[in-house]
Amino acid sequence: MKSDVLRRIAGTELDKLFPDTAPRARDDLITAVVRQWITSAGHAGIFTVARNYWLHFEEFPDERFQVHAEVTTPDGLGQLLRNHLAQEDDVPRILRQLTLRQAVVFDNEDAIAFKIRVRPELRRFEIEPADPEE
Fold it and tell me: I need a surface site. Which of 27, 36, 47, 74 has the fewest CB within 10 A?
């Protein structure tokens, strides 16, 4: 499916979940969701402090499509960040960047750099020490 069609579909789904999103933030989210759908077998994630939003785009042979949205609590993600001593005031930035880029480097409370990434198709987060080159 063409990316402009995917963008319209993503916009419709995002308007349901986040109806009052500012235009620029909405456009950034649409781009992130479409990129994830294309690179993660039709799966995408949007992350906030209060919720994780998982969007699964499914296209059928007859050109019909369906988007399944699931809203979950961020317990696993929050625990992962706490286990690695993410700075509490940095968590919103980490989550936004994780949504927009699917990977983000952050310095924890001990000034140790970690890289966290999301694998939307598995609904899984992975964290590791960051490469000093990043």
Answer: 27
